Amino acid sequence: MREVAAILTLLERHAGTPAVLATLVQVEGSSYRLPGARLLWLPDGTHTGSISGGCLEADVIARAEVVLASGRAERVAYDMAAENDLVWGTGSGCAGRVDVLLEVIPAEPPAWVAAVRRNLASRATTRLLVAHAGAGALGTRLAAAGETAGPGDFLDEIPPPPHIVVFGAGDDAQPLARLAHELGWQVTVVDSRAASATAGRFPGATVIVAPPESAVAALTIDPRTLVVVMTHRFREDAVLLRDLLAAPLVYLGVLGPRRRTERLCAEIGGAAAPAQLHAPVGLDLGGDTPETVALAILAEMQCLLAGRAPIHLRDRAAPIHG
After folding, report:
1. pTM score, whole prediction
2. What's the whole-number mean pLDDT along residues 244-273?
């Protein structure tokens, strides 16, 4: 999601300048990226995004110059499964084939660019149809309501980024907010203490100062909202937990030992911690610093968002992107 936002930012920063957009539209076998990965290239050499792990970008950029000069979209196939690719090709050894569409983004960007920007701001999903084969015009456009992909089309849904809400503006919340922002997630930090909940301490985040009794009501919660309660103040956590358990959250975690969370649940009238509660919060990565705890929390959230169980990839029988 950060990739799309970066592409939109670059287009806006270089308004009036044509560019070339490369979109990964089809994958066979193993590939570092999945369909929907994008790279934007500008005539001055500026670029952002990626369509591989770094092995294809140089060739894609070289082809982008040709596409911009001709004004015609081009589909390129990279067969990294062939043995001679290791010697004469990209040398990636990824054992897969990827197809990439390169198209010109004119100085006056098409309507879908503004639509994606608008929908991300309002936390709505954008459906794009990328025509990459066939006799018709190649390129990206907005998909009509209910429209499905036909032969030679790739239908891409661009959802809003995950929204992580951190209740608590202590020092240990700073690396959590910082790492989430680095992932391209939307970050909100809420605390009752104005001295701690400041934009200076949490750059890139929306900071809300509110008492626990009204803090949850001050939020806009959608199906991609994840919450961590880490105020370190038992009474505030109890009030917050009471209100958050009634909210339609995709993830709700509480920092602290299991016994403390059980006491919190008893405080608000529950017999035991509900099944949807992630407490203690995070995966068991063995860390005990604020940074490693933040990593454990975000790793657990990512697993849940992707519908994955936290296992070693070496122990996964299916393909990584299966």
Report:
1. 0.87
2. 88
